[in-house]
Amino acid sequence: MPTTPAGVREVLIGRGGSALRGRMSVYRSDTLPQNAVHAAFQDSRSYLWFGTQEGVVRFDGGEWKPYRMSDGLVYNFVQAIAEDRRGRLWFGTRIGLSRFDPVRLRSSGWRSYGTADGLPDVHVRAIATDPDGAIWIGTRRGLTRHDADDETFDSWSEQDAAACREVSAVVSDTNGRIWIGSNVAGVASFDPASGRWTAYDNAPRAVNCLAIDKTGQIWIGTLGDGASRLDPATGCLTSIATADGLANAAVLSILCDSYGDVWFGTGEAGVSCLRSGAGEWITLSVEDGLADFTILSLLEDRSGLLWIGALGGLTCFQREGTYRAKTWQTFTRADGLAHDLVACICEASDGRYWFGTFGRGVSSLTMRDGEAVWRSYDTRDGLTVVLRPRRGRLAHGRRRQRAGGKHDSLHLRRQRRHVLGCHRRRRCVGLRSMRRPLAVLEL
Question: What is the pTM of this model?
Answer without folding.
Answer: 0.76
